């Protein structure tokens, strides 16, 4: 079974602040934008909803208003997808063809490629095993993680340090071509973020 990664360029702090903001105007905009998507997801998750999980609309309302949230951890996925919709609306979608679809431990493999280039400040696997901002409950799917502006700046500096060392030695770390492509895509995301002060990246694995 394959997974997908969706990556969004946005103001991370401002996006976090939307959770629990009580912004009903934003809630109506998301409902209008994702109406068909909400209905389609409710049909797909009908069995879970029959067992007490919130509908997609109820989960969206809870995210915007900071609760209430179901105490059943099996229902937490609905809040994760609601937060993903929030990020989709307020952020810019970044190219992800190196990661969608992907199988197995691909995110870990790319992280190893980043580390081979001296980049340890960010991790694509963080998009799989991170957590949404409080008070949203954790769910395994969708996985959620973020790269803050500080981490991105540090990662790009780490890459430049490695690049200078490679230029001096003439020896680059041996990486498979597909890993190089994925790492370059990650660097592209970071450069987009760095070009906009205060912006970072929020990613979801589903």
Question: What's the arrangement of strands in the largest beta sheet?
Answer: 2-1-4-3
Give the overall silhouette: elongated
Average pLDDT reading: 96
Largest sheet, strands/sense/barrel: 4 strands, antiparallel
Which oligomerization state do the chains in this entry correspond to?
single chain
- The portion of residues forming beta strands comes to 5-15%
Instruction: Calculate the terminal CA-CA distance, rounded to whole Å.
Output: 11 Å
Please, how many helices? 10
Radius of gyration: 18 Å
Please tally the β strands and state the result: 4
Helix content estimate: 40-55%
Give the low-confidence spans: none
Helix/strand-derived category reads alpha+beta
Helix-strand string: EHHHHHHEHHEHHE
The structural domain count equals: 1
